[in-house]
Each structure stands twice: as structure tokens, then as C-alpha cells.
Amino acid sequence: MFAIFLPSNAFVGVSSAEDITVWNDSVEADLYLIESGGNSILNPFEDLLAETPTSASFETALTSSEQIEKWTLPSAWSGVVPDDTWSLDIYYEVSDAGGAQLNLSATVTIGGSTFTGYLDQGSSFVAAGSGFVTIDIPVESVTVSGTSEVSLTLSARTIVFSVPSSGASIEFLWGSVEEPSKISANLPLVDLTLEEPVVDGDVVYLGLRIESPFGMEALVFSDSISLSVGNILIETDPTEVSEGDAILVIWTWDGASGGVETIDISTEYVLQAGVKLTGSTTFEIETFDSNGGSGGYYPLNEPLRSSGRGSPLSITIDMALETRDSSLHLSRSTTLEIGGEMAFWMRWGLDHIGDETIPLSPVLKNFQSDGVTDDERGSRVIESPEVNAFEGFMESYYITYFQTGLGIESEELLGDLSKSVTFAITLDLLGEERVKNAPLTLRIDSLTPIEDGGNYNLLRSFIKSQPSPLWSGYDLTASVSTSIMTSFTIVELDASDLLEIEYLRFPWGEMVTITGEDLTQSDEFTIRTVPTSSPLHAPLGLTVLVVIILAGGLFCAFRIVRQRNRYPLLIETILIPMVFLMHFFAYPPLFVISTSGGVALIWLATALASPTVATGAAKDAPAKAPNIVTSFPTINCPQCGTPNPVTSNERPIRLECTGCGRVIKIVA
Q1: How many CB atoms within 10 Å of residue 441?
Q2: What is the pTM of this model?
Q3: CB-hemisphere CA count at 13 Å for 18?
């Protein structure tokens, strides 16, 4: 029977019934032929199939019996194997031959009994190519104990190739997604027991115990597990606890009507697609009005970190690059918001820091309990001494806790904290101090010196790949900035389809924003930079240099075209905003500088190639017709040669040329 630890709650009680086993029969299921840890095993979970198969091949004709492979169950499960026919489907591939004549046998061993089947004569010839051959094995009723051997042995008695060529062969493959060889069997695999309900005020905890030879795999890789009360499905996420080889799944039900009542409970466990194990029973319970009980189920044993679904994770990172004491430093503040089963496991672990009365996983057992009293430990509430002990011990224990407990590579996410000048870890319970399935945050602040001008991994994929994911997925948001005289130079991502990066440069600093949603443990990425404090790369220094280059080039160009056509040069000033857009969108500094210089050279070349105004006027337009009065003397313009009348005897006198507009001064 499962229990909760509620020493101060007067309304805790149990029903009058006992635990009820609702399934302990044989089940018809597919057992896949799988290689695991160097062993050949039988397993009902398709998720354990690998990407690449295991195989056995024959390249010459076989005239005597030879064993291909033997697969066993990890351990048998007590019960009765009924009379039935088991069917083995083994994948084959024939190459460099017209086909092969096969004589195969499959032997099932159950305890001291063996049953053998042979490949049907009508299926003994297989053509070139690939496919499955099926061997039926008649099995008689056998009683199985926990120590009985259950195994499958496949043997080739004879193999003869038809129309073989050089390199003719046949290969038998199993254990992969593409080659899912299996045996369809009927035998005991799982026991399901509905536990005696536990009442906490007006809340009832309903437990299902799952026992099988597959241990945690029976929880992690099953298709689904559900429980209903009165045909109404409980949709809240359950709590899972490991008790030896058994798994206890506990749901919280708050639909009791109050007082004494009888409830109908039914459960459904889907071992694999199309294989449902169901059971039901009734319990009599008595509930009391206590405004929602004491906050949720509290297991005596350490809860599981994952039931296979994984927990939600959201990560927010703030980074800033700056110079301190003439060297580069990167400050980083990383906040992990953790929910689901992982948050419950962390809260339960906080409430059991230093607990030596119950078995704990190594990651929790190693915590030191400085300042935590026996009254505070296991109290269902997380007190400040427990938080302080956690934060203090994490300063030296964070690598193990992150890697083993959270499944996170700390250095990839947080940087190398061993090189940090300072770092601190802060736990925030988000206002909920009880041990329950409620989110919490873990913040890590650090200040680390980094090499000026060296390649630096700003961020890398950090979730460790595991068969049973601890995280259902995670969201990532990072905001990165520099000071006025520091720069990242470049920000390169090697997996552009996973993350979105926005890199901008202002005169007062650079801003980098990195976002990713619904990332998984299989997603891999690396973000590289080259941090530096070089004035040529710094936002302010680069801005000033670009302005000097552009302003100098434009000034020189306009000096050249004082007496030339300016329109081509004026048109080319549109290149100015293009250069500053490259600067704003954080193109590499050397590229921005070279582009600025190139624009200045274009302006100078355009100025030198622009025609003079006089040449243009003489070729493109006739001179203005002079209004000459014959009674006045004339003077020819020294610039364009146009005669201009002198209408006054006053000296000195200034005249405007009627041809080119130049002012002519006559002094005598």
C-alpha cells in the first residue's frame, strides 16, 4: 500500500478495502528482437529499436545446422502461458543470387519446456531482395515462475543459393526501425494493481502499481496509462514513484461528494499499439471538508524525474561584454524555469537534504545538510535553511547536479564557471513553498574573463540525450550586449534552422538576440564569436572611422568638382545610407571599413571623370545670343569668347558675360 507523510493532518485516512490486482493474466504482444548492452533480448517496446540493425550473414551454402542468434527476456514473469501459436517474423536480404532455399527452425524455451517450429515448405524459397519470413511455433500451456528462462533461438539447418554469382549472400537482420524483426507471443508480462486509496481531507489519492520484468521501461515506453473514476477520466498529470522493480503511478482526485461513498475505479494500460490491459474495482472511502487537502501527494520514496513525457523548461539568458582592469569580461545571468515532474523532484529533494532514513539517488544523497534540522526535513514545506543549504552546496556541486540530476551540460549552457571571478546560484520557489508539482526557477550569475580576439563559444546545445527524456522540450531566449568599446566581431550559428539570431550594432554598443522554441534533446547547435576590445572593431571606434572615411572622401570629391558637373557625384551619395545599414546590421568590421573605403574611391573616380562646366556648355548648348548695341564697344569673354558690349565709360567696371555668366572686370 502506498502512503503519504502527513503528521499534522487530522483528516488523513484510507478506505476500508485492500489493494486489488486487476490484471495478472497473459497478454498477446509483439516482442521485438533487440540488441541492448551487448545482449540479445526480447522487448515489447518499439521505441527501443535502433537506427542500425544487428545482423548475421551467410556467404556460402550451409549444409549443417548452425545457430543464428538467441534472444531472452530480461527475466520471466510469474503466471501461466496458455496454449497458442507464436509467430516469428525475421527480416532477410538476399544479394548477388537469384534467390535462396532456406531450412530454418525457431525454438522457444519456457522454463524446462522447449517448443520448436519450422519454416513452412511453401515459404522456404526466397527471391533476391529483402522481406520477412515467418515461422510458426506451437506452444503448450506452461506455468512460469520468476526464475524460469524464456528465450527464442533461431537456427539455419540448410541454406542453398539459386543462380549464385560472386559474393552471393543472405543476411538476417533485426533490432532496427527499418528491420523490426519480432515474435508474436502470448505470455504473462505485466501485473496491474489498484492500490488502496488514501484520503487527505476532501482529496483522494488513487494509485496504480505496475510490475513487470521491464522495470522503468514499462512506464517510460508504454503508449499510455490512464485512470478513471466513475467513467470520468482523471486528466491531471500523475506522480510516479519507483519502488524496487515496481512503478507506482498516483493520481489526485478531488471529485468526492463528501462523507462515506463507494467509487468505481478503472484503469487502462496500453503496452503497445493495439495491446490494452484494463481492470476495474470499487472502493469505499470517507472524505472530509478541508479546503483542498494539504497540497498534493507526498511520496515517502524519491519520485521519478520523468515518466517518459518529460518536463517543460524555459531558459532566459542575459550576457554583457565589457572591459575590466584592461581585460575582457563576460557577465552572464542564466535563469531556468522548471516545471512538471522535474520541479516536483527538485522540491522533494530540497525537503530531504541530508535525509539518511530513506534510500536516495546519488545526486540527492551527496547533498550536505548544514543548518537543516530533523523537524524541517520531510515536513512537506521547503524552509529557508533548506534553500540556503542547497544554494551553498551548489557552489561546488553544480556540475554533478546539472549533469546527473537535470541532464544538462553545465559548461555548454553556463560557460566554464571554474574560470569565473565570481558566480552565485539562486533558487526561487515562485511563492510556493510546499512540496507539490509547481514551477520554480534556478538562476546562475557569473563574471568570467575571456581571451581578447580568440574564438569563443557563446552558447552550445546543452541537453544530454537520454532514452527517457527528462525534458519534453525547451524554449531559449538570450539577450547579449557589448559596451561602447567592445565587440563580438561576428556571431556565427552552425544550425540556422533551429535558432533565430538578430545581431545589431549601434555607436553605443552591439545587441544580439537569440531565440528558439520547442527545441528537443536531439537538436544540436553552436554559436561562435570572436570577442575583442580593438578600437577598429568597437562600435564607437568603428562608427567614427566610417564617418571619417566617408566624410573625407566626399569632401575631396566635391573639391574636385568645383568647376565640373556635380550631378553624378550627388547621385552616388545614396551609398552613404547603404554603408550605415551594413554597420547597423553588424556586418564584420573589416568588411564595413573596406566598403567605406571603396565608396570613397568611387566618389573620387566619379569626380575626376566628371566633365567641366565650360566643355559641357560649349558642346551641349549654344551660347546666349548677345544683345549688342553697335554704338558701344565690345569685349570678348576670355572664358567662352562671347563678345559683350561695354555700355559705360566708368572704370573699373564689372560685366556679366552673356554667354557663360562669368563676371568680367575692366579697369582701363
Answers
A1: 16
A2: 0.76
A3: 1
**Considering only CA atoms, which of 349, 348, 352, 337 is closest in space to residue 440?**
337
Q: Please, which residues have CB within 8 angstroms of residue 97's CB and are 6 or more apart in sequence?
A: 128, 161, 162, 163, 164, 165, 168, 169, 170
**Alpha-carbon distance 521 to 337, whole Å?**
17
Distance of CA 649 to the CA centre of its chain: 95
Q: Answer for the pair 499, 315: CB distance below 8 angstroms, yes or no.
A: no
CB-CB contact of 8 with 19 (8 Å): no
Q: How far is CA 593 from CA 536, 549, 589, 590, in A?
A: 9, 8, 6, 5
Is there a contact between 336 and 320 (Cβ–Cβ < 8 Å)?
Answer: no
Q: What is the DSSP letter of 434?
A: B
Phi then psi for 474, rounded to 5 degrees?
A: -150, 150
Rounded average pLDDT over 185-209:
92
How does strand 471-482 pair with strand 311-324? parallel
C-alpha pair distances (Å), 562 with each of 313, 573, 611, 619, 639? 66, 16, 11, 19, 16
* CB neighbour list of residue 153: distance below 8 Å, 6 or more residues apart: 67, 69, 70, 71, 106, 107, 109
**Which three-class secondary structure state does DSSP give residue 591?**
helix
Length of the chain: 668
For CA atoms 207, 270, 361, 404, give the dihedral sign.
negative
Residue 572, Ramachandran bin (φ over 0: left; ψ between -120 and 50: alpha; else beta): alpha
Q: What is the DSSP letter of 619?
A: H
Is 70 exceeded by the pLDDT of residue 631? no
Report yes or no: 181 and 81 within 8 Å, Cβ to Cβ.
no
- Range with the lowest mean pLDDT among 86-95, 364-373, 580-589, 606-615? 606-615
pLDDT at 4 over 70: no
Handedness of CA 572, 573, 574, 577 (dihedral sign): positive
Task: Give the CB-side neighbour count of residue 608, counting CA atoms within 13 A.
Answer: 7
**Phi, psi of 325, deg, nearest 5:** 55, 45
Residue of 455, 525, 270, 241 whose CA lies nearest to 359: 241
Give the Cα separation of 479 and 320 in Å (integer).
Answer: 8
Of 162-171, 223-232, 649-658, the poorest mean pLDDT is in 649-658
Rounded Cα distance, 211 and 247, in Å: 7
Assess contact for 654 and 665: CB atoms under 8 A: yes
Strand, coil or helix: what is 610? coil
C-alpha span between 636 and 643 (Å, rounded): 4
pLDDT at 410: 94
Helix axis angle, 539-560 to 589-609, nearest 10° = 10
In angstroms, how far is CA 625 from the centroid of its own chain? 82
Helix, strand or coil, per DSSP, at residue 20: strand
Query: In angstroms, rounded to a whole number, what is the distance separating the alpha carbons of residues 197 and 2?
Result: 8
Residue 210 binned pLDDT confidence (cut-offs 50, 70, 90): very high
Amino acid letter, residue 205: Y
Q: Which three cell numbers stand for residue 159?
A: 541454406
CB 483 within 8 A of CB 321: yes
Asked if 157 and 102 count as a contact pair (C-beta separation under 8 A), the reply is no
CB 170 within 8 A of CB 57: yes
User: What string of DSSP letters covers 202-247?
Assistant: TEEEEEEEEE-TTTTHHHHSSSEEEEEETTEE--SPPEEEEETTEE
pLDDT (tens digit per residue) in 600-611: 999 999 888 888
